[in-house]
Amino acid sequence: MEPFTVRILGCGSALPTLRHYPSSQVIELREKQFMIDCGEGTQIQLRRLHIHFSRIIAVFISHLHGDHCFGLPGMLSTFGMTGRTAPLHIYAPSSFEPILQQTLDFFCQGLGFEVIFHGLDTTQQKVIYEDRSLTVETIPLQHRVECCGFLFREKQMLPHIRRDMIDFYHIPISQINNIKNGADWITPDGDIIPNDRLTSPATPARSYAYCSDTRYIKSLSKQVQGVNTLYHESTYLAKDADRAKLYWHSTSEQAAKVAHDAKVGKLLLGHYSARYNNEELLLKEAQAIFPNTILSQEGMVIDV
To answer: Which residues does UniProt mark as catalytic (predicted)?
Structure first.
């Protein structure tokens, strides 16, 4: 099975600390890499974690708060200096387009590669990217500015060939793809060998949901129902729920409620407030509701 991983570059919130970088992640599936959010220091983290600049094909920006996008201009400039030639696709709220263009015109002339902007309507859940391996769709969220999360869904793979049956019936290699796509096999004597005897079920498709800055949304569980891994911001402890409500953020308990109601595989917490020196308290509160919860940390690689 091909790796489907999430690498944490930053999991802190807006106020800088010595423990955490601002939000950024790199998703990898079938040798393709995608970045979600790009806070300050992202390109340093790419270097530190030995992630090749040239392999990132798209950047998804959840919203236009600095701790989620201030790292983008510097990273684009560096991509130009390192000789990138492949286009880079940027998906972000539509209002970001004139800002990005002005930044490129002022700081990033002569990049050597094309920056292709895709404006997002953060109020709609829709597929915004698709290739042979996966789709990416937006998840509308509720924050102080227009904001959305992203849902990465692997496309269902074909069934597995049963090598013992292929050998037993002397089926030529040229017919393997047909059988994977559902064909039966007819022997030279005219006997029909049904497809389900020649194959075993495909590996279930995997999915990852990234829910960036948002207040608690009870209905969010329906949009991320059954995903293998859910990242949900957990800026505050339950005792600071009033602050979470004021700044349109979530508590770790609220993140766990979404995970519980959505019946996800595991929950990943992040976007920690700088006011806490012990994030284990956030973890403890979440695990009381949804036991399979982990804390994101810089450098961590999560198998979706």
So the answer is: 67 (proton acceptor)
User: Domain 2-155+202-301, what architecture?
Assistant: 4-Layer Sandwich (3.60)
In this structure, is the dihedral angle defined by the CA atoms of residues 61, 223, 28 and 155, taken in order, positive or negative?
negative
What's the whole-number mean pLDDT along residues 136-162? 95
DSSP 49: T
List alpha helices for the chain, DSSP H.
42-48, 66-69, 72-81, 96-107, 163-168, 176-180, 195-198, 220-223, 241-246, 252-262, 280-287
Tell me the two tokens of residue 113: 């590669």
Q: What is the pTM of this model?
A: 0.92
Over the stretch 217-246, which tens digit does the pLDDT of each residue have?
999 999 999 999 999 999 999 999 999 999
List where CATH 3.60.15.10 sits in the chain: 2-155+202-301
Q: Which of 37, 67, 196, 261 is catalytic?
A: 67
Is-catalytic flag, 184?
no
The partner residues of 185 in beta bridges, in order of sequence, read 193
The answer to whether residues 238 and 285 touch, using CB atoms and an 8 Å cutoff, is: yes
Q: What is the mean pLDDT of residues 127-139?
A: 97
Kindly report the average pLDDT of the chain as a whole number: 95
CA-CA-CA-CA torsion sign (288, 262, 255, 204): positive
Per the annotation, binding residues for Zn(2+) are 63, 65, 67-68, 143, 213, 271
